[in-house]
Structure formats: C-alpha cells, structure tokens
Amino acid sequence: MKKTLLAAVLGASVLAAPAMAEDVVKLRVVGQPLATGLIQKNKEQPFFETLQETAGLPLEVNYKPLDTTGIKDVEELRVLKSGMFDLVSLRMSQVSRDEPTILGLDLVGLSPDYKSGREVADKYSEVVDKRLQERFNTKLLGVWPFGPQVLFCKHPIASLSDVKGLKVRVYDQNLAQFVESVGGIPVPLGFGDVHQSLALGVVDCAITGPSSANSAGWPEVTTHVLPLGFQMALNGYGINLKTWNKFTPEQQEKLQGAFDELVDDIWAYSEELFEDAKNCNVGRECKTGTQFDLTEVQVTDEDLAILRNGVREISYPTWSEVCNKTNPSCAEDWKAALGESVGL
C-alpha cells in the first residue's frame, strides 16, 4: 500500500514538473525612452516583441518605453524592487542615485572609447549584479552603451578649457564634478528638457552621444561639437529576482543567452551609430541621421590628458567617498576589478 502510494506521489510529481515549467510567465517591461533614438527603436523594442519566439520560452511580454509610463528614470530600481514591473532597461547613471556602486561602471575618463568601455563593463558587472541582488532584489542581465558622450555648445570653443564660465548640462554627479573642475557650471537636466534649454539659453553646452543628439535635434540649437568621450553612457537590463526564479534553470539559461546576444548586438550597433552620427552632425555623408553643419572642434593632447587624469584626481576620489558611505567595500571592490587599468 505504502509503495503504491509513494509511486503515485512520485508519478504525479514527474507529471507536474513539465507543466509548471511551461506555465506562461508574464513580463511587464520598461524600455528606454522613445526620445533616445535608434537603439531603442531598432534593437531593444523588436527584441522584446519577438522574445517569446527567439528564446523559445513561455512568455507574454508587455513592453512599454519609459516615457510612456509616467515613471521617472531615477525611480527604475525602486520600481523593480517593488515588483511593479518585472524587467527594466536601466539607465545606469540615473539609477546610481539610489545605488552609487553602479556609477563605478562609468566614471568620467574611465572609458573614452568602445574597447575600454567593453572591458570595464565585463570586469565590473559582477560587482554591480551582486549589489543589485542584495539591495534591490534584481538580477543584472547585461550592460550596453549609448556610446561616448561628447560636448555640444552654442558658443565657439576651441578646446575643453573653453567651457570655463559656461553652463553645461550634465546627467550625474560624477560628470558634474568634472565639469566644475575645468571651470564649467554644471546644470542637471533630463534629456527631454535639453533642446529647449539650449534654445532659451538656460544652458550654453550639453553632453550626450552624437546619435542621441542628432535624433533630438540638438544641432539645431548648437554650433560646435567637441568629440571627447567623457563617459560611455552605459545602460543595463535588470530583472526582478522573484520573476527570474519563476523560470527553470534551463529556461534561465535560454533567457540569459538571449540577452547576451542582444547586448553584443547593441555594442556593435552603437559603435556604427556613433561614427555615422558624428558625420551627420558636421555635414559629412551619413546614413542614419539628419545632416547638420556643426563645427567639429579638434581634440587636443591637453584635452586628453585632462580627461585621463580626471579618473584618478576627480571622478574616482569623489565617487568612492560617496559610495563607501552606503557600501563600505565599494572602493576596494572597484580597485580589485579595475584599479590596475588606471594606475590605482
């Protein structure tokens, strides 16, 4: 009798396991804002719209760009932790206000080009993932860039030092400290407010990627561009751990594999867009944007030196002091992962 009962229980368990694994998982997804341009339009949104088929998983995906949800980018980690949404395309600089550890991915001067940016992301993502799991019940699925963030101005400039006395739009405290160190006046502004602020003279200059600037029409209200890469504007995909744990280990592997492919694709696409948009903005032949006629300022050796020294002298010390207050091992974890590459 006992053997019969045990066999029945085991049999029921075996039959139930595949059924549980095949339950449809609903993914409520917040994507990048529509205003950010072609990566959101051509890579991210199509990925989520076809994720069920490409990953071969029982999914029901409801994808919404951030600027259609009423949620602010600085609230994304809170939204994930609460479970209001299951998966979010994280704007790393903006959410670093809630978790300063994240900003270690993108300190000013750390990643002036794509090669260094990818190396930093690969080496430091594990540190960020551990912290997000501990504090925000969120697993990091991947990190990707909008690309080097450069300077647009509505006043003639010949070098980085010419921002002295000018009001410069920034998007995080690390960048604000650097701008202040070279004599500029940092003004925090959301991306959607920059075009009007430039037009009205609220700011004299603003920093973003060439492609995003082109999509948002910044060259309509500026005259000069200095193609010096201050930061890589890294972003990432975070999934609520409760949602992640609804998948079997095999399904988790498939889902992670799909995001690995997306991230690799965006790294390559971002670099294509960066080069093409640089050409568009200064009136050279281009394919993906609108042609403008900005004056391209040549990056000087002095500009590069200021940026390189900025990691050791400004961005790392400023950031690590803040980060250690909420995460006592923050600076040591960063130095273990990245310190050797910048002489720390």
UniProtKB/TrEMBL annotation:
Annotated Gene3D superfamilies: Bacterial extracellular solute-binding protein, family 7 (3.40.190.170)
Keywords assigned by UniProt, alphabetized: Signal, Transport
Pfam families to which the protein is assigned, alphabetical: DctP
Region forming the signal peptide: 1-21
UniProt KW Signal keyword: yes
GO process terms (BP): transmembrane transport
Family, similarity comment: Belongs to the bacterial solute-binding protein 7 family.
Protein's recorded name: ABC transporter substrate-binding protein
Organism, as annotated: Marinobacterium nitratireducens
